[in-house]
Amino acid sequence: MHTPNSAFEYHEPKETKVDASLGYEETDVQVSGIVVFLTALGIFVAVTAVLCVGIGKVINHELAKADGPTTKWNHPVDVRKLGNLASSPELQQQFAQLASRFPSPRLQTDDGYQEIMDIHAKEDLLLENYSWVDESKGILRIPIDRAMELVAERGLPVAPVASETPLLAEDSVPVVKAPLTDGFARTGYEQDQTAKAEALKSKE
User: Fold this and answer.
1) How are the residues of the chain apportioned to helix, strand and coil, as percentages rounded to the nearest 5?
2) d(Cα 64, Cα 72) in Å, to the nearest integer?
3) Which of 153-176 are b and which e, b meaning 16 or more Cβ less than 10 Å from the residue's Cβ?
4) pTM of the predicted protein model
5) Which residues contact 82 (CB under 8 A, 6 or more apart)?
6) pLDDT class for 48, splitting at 50, 70, 90?
């Protein structure tokens, strides 16, 4: 309805005819908007890639400048030429040769539990069996149980009495207390291995 004194004019909405025979709505998709979005996205990706490459070159230049001139210790190495150690028997053999020549201590090949267990097994062999220290001089290593028996029978050698010195201010005579343990304990890994061995023996 239109009146000459009204501030706004009212227009009846136009009716649009839809062709139902096409099976889809023709006005939903605007190809121009999709093209504009994809174009803007491509430009953004290209600009970002150029910026990343430029920033990387600047960082590498600053790092190379901080490292100083290239020497045999800091020259770049193309690791692709070295090959894959896991699938190359030749590289594995070279690594084994280098490892055999490399002095101790070497890098551990495991978490260290097996190495500690081997060390304790070696100590047990030395502590529980007779072995020569120097056969030419007649120096023999005896089991620790036998050594304790001998010490209990014969006693320890008596050290010469040291000259007593006067105590300083606020000093006191130290009191030696017997330790609660002998300072040695098997690791959890060794205890597990011992339990497994005993379980296998019991099954046999």
Assistant:
1) 50, 5, 45
2) 14
3) eeeeeeeeeeeeeeeeeeeeeeee
4) 0.33
5) 91
6) very high
